[in-house]
Each structure stands twice: as structure tokens, then as C-alpha cells.
Design brief:
Blueprint: E1 2-7, E2 45-55, E3 58-67, E4 70-79, H1 82-100, E5 102-103, E6 106-107, E7 110-120, E8 126-136, E9 139-148, H2 153-173
Antiparallel strand pairs: 1-9, 2-3, 3-4, 5-6, 7-8, 8-9
Length: about 170
């Protein structure tokens, strides 16, 4: 499940959006990246590997993604505490997405993590929820993604991050 709210600027499809992000009005407005419904969807980013290394008080999370034949690696480090390692998993995924969005002509967009958490729904059902900002030239989309936790919650956070951005990546990558 993924949802989006667009903010400020001009969308890649030329849709008029609200004023500049630097202005005081940060009210959600429709906008952001639009897919051409007539085009064939591009390959989605898929997870190749998630690696978490604890180094005393520090943790390093490495996420390897592939979109079509394009590999990307994202790395994030920080305190080795449970809740923060979940955030590191989302940040490492966002960094890998940034690598996918970098072309020979420069970056097509950037991905920033706002929130990453686990929500317990009771009855042993836990869900990873991530909120990211996907920003490009004159546009920003606030996106959410979620993933059921089956096994490692850090892996579920990576899946939730991709659930948030994958549809937009299709439009930006090809």
C-alpha cells in the first residue's frame, strides 16, 4: 500500500502546482510525478540484499537494489539501537534509490526519510510504516509505504520504503 501528497513547484508532466517550497505555505497540494497510462511500466526496484552490521554502539545498514539491469547500493550508519536501526534501514534504501535516480546528466530526484516505525496491530500482527519525501526539479511528493513484518523488521522497513517510492521510480527511471 502506498499513498502520496504533492508539494510545491511544477511537476514533470507540466501540471501547475503550488508555490515554491521555500515559501511559508507548506499545505499539501495535488501534484508530483505522473505516469503516462499508455506507456508500458518500467522494471521496479527489487531488493537484492539487506546487510546489518553491529559495531559496538554503531550499526551499518547496506541495502542492494536492482531496477532492470541497474544495480544500486545504499549505506547508512548510526546508533545501534533497535528503533534507530529501523530508520537506518529506510535511509540506506533511500540512498540506494538516489543512486538509481542518478543518470549521466545528473540526479533526477532525491529520496529523504521522514519517518520509519513499526506499528503493532495486535494479535501478533506488526507492520512497518515509512514516510518519505521524493523530490525533483521543482516538485516534492510525500509518500507512504507499509509492509507486513514476517521475520526481520529491518527487512520489512526496506520493503515499506520501496512500496512508497516504486510507482514514482517507474516514471523517473525510464
Amino acid at each position: 500500500f502506498a499513498s502520496a501528497r504533492g508539494y510545491g513547484g511544477m511537476g514533470p508532466g507540466g501540471a501547475e502546482l503550488s508555490e515554491d517550497l521555500g515559501a511559508g505555505d507548506r499545505t499539501p497540494k495535488p501534484g508530483g510525478v505522473r505516469l503516462d497510462p499508455g506507456s508500458a511500466p518500467a522494471p521496479r526496484a527489487v531488493i537484492d540484499q539487506v546487510k546489518v552490521t553491529d559495531e559496538g554502539y554503531d550499526a551499518v545498514v547496506e541495502v542492494r537494489l536492482t531496477a532492470g539491469d541497474r544495480p544500486a547500493i545504499g549505506v547508512a550508519s548510526g546508533p545501534a539501537f533497535d528503533g534507530y536501526v529501523l530508520r537506518l534501514a529506510a535511509i540506506a534504501t533511500a540512498h540506494a534509490v538516489d543512486h538509481l535516480l542518478t543518470a549521466e546528466t545528473g540526479p533526477r530526484g532525491r529520496c529523504f526519510v521522514e519517518h520509519a516505525t513499526v506499528v503493532s496491530l495486535g494479535g501478533g500482527c506488526d507492520v512497518a510504516v515509512v514516510v518519505v519525501l521524493l523530490a525533483g526539479d521543482g516538485w516534492v511528493d510525500q509518500l507512504t509505504g507499509s509492509a507486513l513484518i514476517v521475520g526481520d523488521p529491518r527487512y520489512a522497513v526496506v520493503r515499506a520504503t520501496l512500496a512508497a517510492v516504486n510507482r514514482r521510480l517507474e516514471a523517473l527511471l525510464w
